[in-house]
Design goal:
By secondary structure, the chain is of the alpha/beta class. The chain folds into two domains: 266 residues, Alkaline Phosphatase, subunit A (3-Layer(aba) Sandwich), CATH 3.40.720.10; 105 residues, 2-Layer Sandwich (Alpha-Beta Plaits), CATH 3.30.70. Helices cover 32% and strands 20% of the residues.
Length: 386
């Protein structure tokens, strides 16, 4: 293969994993909750075999799937963006990244306040939309940073753009990233700018500051082998910019999809890795199942434009990194299987079954692109090219 397009539908989970109860996620099923809205219309995903995946027959099966289809379990101890994407790229994380359900330690907060020169508010788990509702005015009056977390391994910093300019907010997040190491080493520090007047609105200028991957990933191996590695959306943030040859840090599903369609027309040799964040950030975390369904419909329409443009030596993979069930009682990520679809002129329609790790995707991409990397997974290239 010359080009591989790997699209991550952020948080589009395919049903609870066997250990979901250990994470408080018994019964979680993102796709089922979205389907129950009655609004889902995804003919192109179904044509590739999404409804033929075990446990997803409620979506509607096809007798003539046009792609390879299956689902994958997360082997790593986590259910967040960082561990999910790293595992897709072949890197297993045996230890869960630290979370802070009681907030961050006082000595850390004191050091952070001194380093940024600003007072801090909140310091506990909170919904991103609710935290600016409840602390937004106070943060403006006190010229303060709002620091909060969630069930994930994140340190989030919100500030009004009229009080803390974007460049300063990003610097403040870089300061936090340097402080959050060792036992405090959260997966991501996230800048969460907001603007307007009450009710405030989060802007599209979010930025993630991730820990560097703790081992070699598919991106590193492809880069070292001289392949092109293109990142669309927040891929560069997730991998701390490691292994990429070019980055396109556009925001939101529409712009990321548009950029991917543009790159379909470019001549390159390697991987185009895409994250579509809105499923998670805009709909899953806000328990908006109807909005989630509409967003999937919009992606499916774009997919209908992409599929005919795949060239002879192209492969397209579609998967997810975790769940975020919009019908769940919480607004947190959920521990789920993820769907796995593969398509392209040379891809043989087949049932890939249930993969034991997301890392099988990375191993397969590496083999298709002629790179010796396998990571933690087993390639299924022979099945889809047979």
């Amino acid at each position: 293969m010359k080009r591989v397009f790997l699209i991550v539908l952020d948080s589009v989970g395919a049903g609870e994993l066997p250990d979901a109860a250990d994470f408080g996620d018994a019964g979680a099923h993102t796709l089922r909750s979205v389907f129950r809205t009655g609004l889902l219309h995804i003919p192109h995903l179904l044509s590739l075999g999404l409804g033929n995946v075990r446990g997803l027959d409620f979506l509607g099966k096809t007798d003539t799937p046009q792609g390879a289809y299956g689902k994958a379990a997360e082997r790593s101890r986590g259910k967040d963006t960082t561990t999910g994407h790293w595992e897709i790229a072949g890197l297993y994380s045996p230890t869960a990244m630290p979370t802070f359900p009681q907030g961050f330690p006082a000595d850390l907060m004191e050091a952070y306040s001194r380093a940024t020169g600003r007072p801090l508010l909140c310091n506990r788990p909170y919904s991103g939309t609710e935290v600016i509702r409840d602390f937004g005015r106070e943060s403006i009056e006190k010229k303060a940073l709002i620091v909060y977390t969630s069930a994930d391994s994140v340190f989030q910093v919100a500030a009004h753009t009229d009080v803390v300019p974007l460049d300063e907010l990003y610097r403040d997040c870089e300061i936090a990233r340097k402080l959050l190491v060792g036992p405090l080493g959260v997966g991501r520090v996230i800048a969460r700018p907001f603007d307007g007047e009450h009710p405030f609105h989060r802007t599209a200028d979010r930025r993630d500051f991730s820990l560097p991957p703790h081992g070699e990933t598919l991106l590193d191996a492809l880069h070292d082998a001289g392949r092109d590695v293109l990142g669309v959306g927040k891929i560069s943030d997730i991998f701390a910019a490691r292994g990429l040859t070019r980055s396109f840090p556009v925001h939101g599903n529409p712009d990321c999809t548009k950029e991917t369609e543009r790159l379909l027309g470019e001549d390159f040799c390697g991987l185009c890795f895409v994250n579509l964040v809105d499923f998670d950030m805009v709909y899953g975390h806000r328990n908006d199942a109807e909005g989630y369904a509409r967003a999937l419909n919009e992606f499916d329409t774009a997919l209908g434009r992409m599929l005919p443009r795949l060239q002879k030596e192209d492969a397209l993979f579609i998967t997810a990194d975790h769940g975020c069930d919009p019908g769940d009682v919480s607004t947190d990520h959920t521990r789920e299987y993820v769907p796995l679809l593969a398509a392209g002129p040379a891809i043989r329609p087949c049932d890939l079954g249930v993969r034991t790790t997301y890392a099988d995707i990375g191993a397969t991409v590496a083999e298709l692109l002629g790179c010796g990397y396998r990571g933690a997974g087993q390639s299924f290239a022979a099945q889809i090219l047979g």
